[in-house]
Amino acid sequence: MTYSALLTIILTPLVLLGLATVLTWVERRLLGLWQDRYGPNRVGPGGMFQAVADGTKILFKQDWIPPFADRGVFVLAPAIGMMTVLLSFAVIPLPMHAGIASDMNVGLLFILGMMGLGVYAVVLAGWSSNSKFALLGGMRAAAQMISYEVFMGLSLMGVVMMAGSFSLQDIVAAQAGLWFIIPQCLGFGVFMLAGIAETHRLPFDLPEGENELGAGFHTEYSGMKFGMFFIAEYAGIILVSSLVTTLYLGGWRGPLLPPAVWFLLKTGGMVAFFILLRASLPRPRYDQLMALGWKVLLPLSLLNVMATGTILMLRASL
């Protein structure tokens, strides 16, 4: 293992945790802008130190475990949620010469596998809390995440067929002439909706619906255990945005500007889009969410796979 790879492995989790913390402030400022209100503006210039204040508060909050909870599983659940998100970043290809923790030839499958393991975090959190609201939130989250993982995986098959590889580095290289968002616009739309559902973001935050379930699967959590779920959600937003950049927007490729700037601009734009959805869309009913997946997104993703395969076969026969 080279020193650069070792440095990447050490720094990546630290940078991601810092970015996820800063993103909580960015989200509140953008929501204030789009909803015509101030947002955080008291602590530091532009409320910049609000994230630091919130982090400090949550570190010193009482770490309480309900006496009726399954203690071991209750503690393990947020750690699983945090680790699956952080491990997924190991195969995200950074801009050229910036390093990558692990250039796996099945990197895309590795990320889908880590997202699948993330289901255990919400299910175990809901079950171990021994609370009705938490259990209902955990069951909702499990059904939602498992369902939308199916559509997410199928939506990516068109990208894999066009690139001829599961390696994220190869997928970026295959977009040298044309970004995949153009020929794979249908798969892009399905992937975006699935990504919103996977990260439990509005309007698909039904596992945490406060008007129905209190706080859903993490109702009984407090202190840093709740903070781990909270940070994992924001790290998940960065992960899905990075995947969209890598799979559909050409990764770090772009004219004039340095590769790192292009990667940050594309990923930052997708993060802002996630926040804009929260500011503008209402939450649907749970049955509407599941019907959207199985009755609309599943046929569209299968259609995208068939259309992509047909076009590639016709092109190969010419």
TrEMBL record:
Keywords: Cell membrane, Membrane, NAD, Oxidoreductase, Quinone, Translocase, Transmembrane, Transmembrane helix, Ubiquinone. One of its GO terms (molecular function) is oxidoreductase activity. The keyword Translocase applies. NDH-1 is composed of 14 different subunits. Subunits NuoA, H, J, K, L, M, N constitute the membrane sector of the complex. PROSITE patterns: COMPLEX1_ND1_1, COMPLEX1_ND1_2. Its main location: membrane. It catalyses: a quinone + NADH + 5 H(+)(in) = a quinol + NAD(+) + 4 H(+)(out). NDH-1 shuttles electrons from NADH, via FMN and iron-sulfur (Fe-S) centers, to quinones in the respiratory chain. The immediate electron acceptor for the enzyme in this species is believed to be ubiquinone. Couples the redox reaction to proton translocation (for every two electrons transferred, four hydrogen ions are translocated across the cytoplasmic membrane), and thus conserves the redox energy in a proton gradient. This subunit may bind ubiquinone. This is NADH-quinone oxidoreductase subunit H. The chain crosses the membrane at residues 73-94, 106-126, 146-166, 178-197, 226-249, 261-280, 292-314. It holds the Pfam family NADHdh. Belongs to the complex I subunit 1 family. It is found in: Cell membrane; Membrane. Its EC number is 7.1.1.-. It is a multi-pass membrane protein.
